[in-house]
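Standup, Tuesday
Yesterday: got the pipeline producing structure tokens again.
Today: sanity-check two examples.
Blockers: none.

Example 1:
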Amino acid sequence: MVSILSLLSFLLVVIPQTLGDDEACGPNQPKILQGSTGIIQSPGFSDRKNYPETIQCTYEIQAPPGQRVRLNFHFLDIETSSSCRYDYLAVYNKINETQYREAVFCGNVLPRDIMSLKEIFVIRFVSDPLITASGFNLTWLTTDMSLCYPEEFQCKNRKCVLDEVLCDGTDDCGDGTDEEGCDLPLTPAPPCGQPVFPPIEGADRIIGGQEVRQGSWPWQAELQRGFYSPNGHVCGATILNANWVLTAAHCFLDGLEKHRLRLHLGKHNAYLTDPTEQVRYIDTYIIYPREVNKKITAMSDFDIMHDFALIKLNAPLKFTDYVRPACLPQKDYELTVGSFCYVTGWGVTRGTGGNDVLKQAESEILDEADCSTEFVDFNSTTMICTGTQAGGHGVCHGDSGGPLSCKFGDHWEVLGVASYVTRNNMISGLCGVKNGPSGYARISTHIDWINDIMESFS
């Protein structure tokens, strides 16, 4: 409501300047914009044409001293990809000549209004040589108003909610930020490992896998980079209870810090917001054995033999038919070689289709000798070897951190966390190849560690 009123007040006194297609895309970029308001759109948008291939356009919006810049999106249709790696619209705060990334957009999910930290926003639109789309159209305005009204609370996702709903036990923000630190009693948890919607069982070929029945793996979570919309996929994860999620330590490689990450729960579609979806941020993460919020920039910063990280959420989850906790195995339980479990994730599919949805694949438990590589000396005490020696299906880049789910009677247990998922390691190498099974971090030998960490930090 603030954005509409503010925009209308400006429109009454000034006609916004519409930046024509190519003004900011030539050799003299960035295009400097000053004044009260204006419209920015992708090249070709006014003629209802797709934006061109291989283009870069840069705009620098400068507000008067003491004011900030607000962006209001009217239309967005930019080639969709994980972490917007091909075409994208990036927004940066410029402070003392240094640019700090605020957000990166692609796809067609319309963003909420976004506000600069200081007087300058830099907007950069980039396309690659391949696929193009309709583009974008947004209004910018300079203002001394905040994103939300004085009687409202600004959620981390830029949604505004009334102050009176804070700590009321309902996730009004949609990301838990209105329920942080409230110390309310948790709602009773449903039985672990028992999905309301049973998984599709039977052999299938995440490389060569199949789309899951929505909600059939309700303990599956996704770790994403928070800058990117609609999807900044990093890793999979497993819901343990309303406050804790388990993933792999190596998912924090590249120096990813907790404020740059978010968790998605109850998710099925990679690039759409599911109505069943919940979002949370990271309060604390612990790298095995007890490294709190440790910045990981190299393989030597964590123990590949114990590739675990526990994540405490910023606010409790609300359990539903689509968000439910996993069962963990008995301490020191060993899977039988030749038995079958399931692997799930949104990882790379190498042309086998379905990279926009959660997928599953049946995975055989193999002998430890099958998983020993030059990269790691496989340790059956702390690892599980699974996959297929024949190749053709299995996990791949992006499936790391996700669960290895095994059925026991009327319930499922998560026995492993995806660790090194390619023939070489967890970062590079081929997936789904002959003699290239995957290594999962073994949960049953870490039950005491999991319980101790959750108790110590709760």
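Example 2:
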Amino acid sequence: MTRPIASMETKENSAAPRLSAITQAGACGPGRRMRKAATSPMHEPRRRSFAAAAWRRCRGAARLARRCTEYPRGLVTGTRNGAAGECEETGRVAAHKACGRDLEGFSRVPSDPLCRLPDGLTLIGPPPRVQPGEVVGVVVARNEELRLGAALRHYRQLGIGPILLLDNGSTDGTRAIAAGVPRVHVVAASGRYADSGFGIAWINAVLDRFARDHWALMFDADELLVFPGADAAGSLPALCAHLDRVGSECLQAFMLDLFPREPLHSVAYRAGQDLLQAAPWFEPPRLRREAIPDFPHVAEYGGIRQRIFFPHTQPDRPLRFLHEKLYNLGFRLAVLRDAAWFGRLAPPFPPNLTKVPLLRWRAGVRFLSAHATTALRRAAQQPTGVLLHFKFLQDFHERAMDAVARNAHYAGSIEYREYLRALTRDPDLTLFGPASQRYGGPEHLTRLGLMADSTGWRAERLAQSSALVD
């Protein structure tokens, strides 16, 4: 039976072997001071005190590592190469840190286990407490005071739980707006947006820490998710419960651009107003679908943004068709496919409209981009959604200029450069046209075939409505 540390012998011949074992193992050596004490006969009391301290620290680290393996979600979040580490790894990191050593490639482990996030992410205030059945929201924001209040109000009406707002250096009232809404938790994201995979690495990290085994909703401050039945208060948790029952782990959606009738620079939208009052119009898109390797295995293109800002990407144009065919031929050759200069010759594409904003977060699930995830289960018959997209307000020109100046978006902010070219050609640009329709609610989009309902989800809504009437 191992003796407690307090009963260590005082004789040198009994203390030295134990101390030697500790120092030779290299797991807990506090540095040169300890090694010097271990080899100097003049410092026998100090040697014993160092041995006792090192022994206690090793025992504490071992207890922390054991506790970490007892909880699937872990006590801490270690990172290696930007990906969230598993609990076994974080226990190993904790053991090394407690013993004064470091592991190359792992981020620093903070003292508060509730706030441990990868380097570059700092939770401001208390951590979220997620209750069973709640949906965790996450949004990356930078200077979004114009739209943020309306977006948060919309998701509160849907019945969302805690919201994680990843603030990437806002200089306006974004944080103040978040502080005024209950259960919105600000996470300061100090790094470069582009270096985080355009926010995807940050989102994966916070969802790993706070949303494991819960449904999670990723949205932008200019996006409002709707789905069949979304006009009923508290419908989001009910939808997630239905998806659980049919064996689905996600809700697929596409972005539908809404816009005002007047020229963009004439819009007088004020923060906190209903976004649909300022931009109630949309143009029913003719979507073109192309297969992609990652889930959801489809990318959808088209709509008013392609028609106005990216007309040169229409695949039926002869030059665009020839460009794509020649590029695909060259792509088959490995020497060209791996060359950076050849990649820059790729034919331009309009924005991908497909997203998977709502998904059940579990071990192994990741966003690969804003438009793709790791593999998820999907039922044969289930509803889909639409993200009402409110990009086109009076700040459109200013935000496009900022995106280009910071080079903060994909492919050198090429999408925003196209916006600036269009605004240069027509400073009084308006998106309103003969095909425009006023948005009339989720059922309007269902009638147009822009999102799908399902028999089971419709039956559940009718049963709930009948129960409320009774």
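Quick observation on example 2: The two ends are 70 Å apart (CA to CA). Confidence is low (pLDDT under 50) at residues 1-51, 57-115.
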